Amino acid sequence: MKNILVIGATGQIGSELTIELRKRYGNENVVAGYIKGAEPKSELRESGPCEIVDVTDAQMIENVVKLYKIDTIYNLAALLSVVAESKPLLAWKIGIDGLWNVLEVARQHNCAVFTPSSIGSFGQDTPHVNTPQDTIQRPRTMYGISKVTTELLSDYYYNKYGVDTRSVRFPGIISNVTPPGGGTTDYAVDIYYSAVKGEKFVCPIGAGTFMDMMYMPDALDAAINLMEADPAKLVHRNAFNIAAMSFDPEMIYQSICKYIPDFKMEYDVDPLKQSIANSWPDSLDDTCARNEWGWNPKFDLDSMTKDMLEKLRIKLK
Ligand code: SER
User: Fold this and answer.
1) Which residue out of 118, 148, 209 has the highest number of ligand 1 atoms within 8 Å of its CB and is therefore the one to mutate?
2) Which of 87, 137, 143 to mutate to test the pocket of ligand 1 (most atoms within 8 A of CB)?
3) Where are the domain boundaries for CATH 3.40.50.720 in the chain?
4) How does the average pLDDT of the chain come out, rounded?
5) 1 confidence band (pLDDT: 50, 70, 90)
6) 4-170+215-241, which class in CATH?
7) How far away, in angstroms, is 278 Cα from ligand 1 center?
């Protein structure tokens, strides 16, 4: 990775991944691609090149790839699961028509491509506990359908054209920088904001609903380390199960109560979010990622809680 383009650089993952890539590969070598209405701010805008890159416009992608001699594309443009259910056509247009554009430009200009998949690529019929790397997927949400298609199309471009595509199935990602918007796992971010603001948290996901989650520093390591991995060791490509922690709302609540004992939570379950959560795995088996490229997360629930509360206290002061 010498010259990198991040598409979706102002989103939940992109805003932190771009900064991390700039730290590791040099500010001038990482282009933040954004769309109108989601302009980069402060550190992201000032620390390196920024260009408008709409994933639905192949020419726009190609122009930036040529201008900056890009060799690696992080394609993060997507709608999260709940929003995708209300705008399925748009979810497909961004997630899959956009991916075609990225893959075609990558094929013509010899770029490696990382396009995230998700725990949302699994469905009701998937084994829910310790979900294997290679298993039945069959999701019924548009988010999941677009993620399975992402995996298949990315593998297609690798097998047919030799495009160096790689991906992980991200769990719910928790961070204190850019909030997610419209995901099923968002509650696990929102709960920390409520705790630090001294507010009661109203949880939209029911007690006993387990989902895989991950703290952002580990998610960034996953995306970067996989793209750096020795290709000779990769048996899989699109996409690796990765896991760091699995919890239900009670567990994250208890973890926060260790630091804020009078924190209160009640439930008001959102039927759409709950049905999506029910269809997703409780926990993934990430053995292949560990064996093939050394995946090894650093944060568990309690160490994440400690760090989230410290950082949010400063941010919300
Ligand atoms: N965080 C995503 C969502 O909830 C799942 O990958 O939509």
Assistant:
1) 118
2) 143
3) 4-170+215-241
4) 97
5) confident
6) alpha beta
7) 13
Instruction: Tell me how far apart the alpha carbons of residues 8 and 244 are, in angstroms, rounded to a whole number.
Output: 24
Q: Measured from the CB, is residue 119 less than 6 Å from ligand 1? A: yes
Q: Is 212 exposed, middle or buried (0-12, 13-18, 19+ CB in 10 A)?
A: buried
In short, whether 40's Cβ falls inside 6 Å of ligand 1 is: no
Average the pLDDT over 278-286 and give the result: 98
**Ligand 1 pocket, residue 80 CB under 6 Å:** yes
pTM above 0.85, yes or no: yes
- Spatial neighbors of 288 by CB under 8 A, at least 6 apart, are 133, 235, 236, 240, 241
Q: Is 118 in the pocket of ligand 1 (CB under 6 A)?
A: yes
Find, among 84, 73, 101, the residue nearest to 9 by Cα. 73
CA atoms within 13 A on the CB side of 263: 23
Give CATH for domain 172-213+245-283+298-315: 3.90.25
CA 119 to centroid of ligand 1, rounded, Å: 7
The answer to whether the CB of 244 falls within 8 A of the CB of 284 is no
In the chain, CATH 3.90.25 sits at 172-213+245-283+298-315
Q: Tokens standing for 272?
A: 């759409």
Q: Which residues pair with 20 in a beta bridge?
A: none
State the distance from the centre of ligand 1 to the C-alpha of 172, rounded, in angstroms. 5
Mean pLDDT computed over 212-217: 98
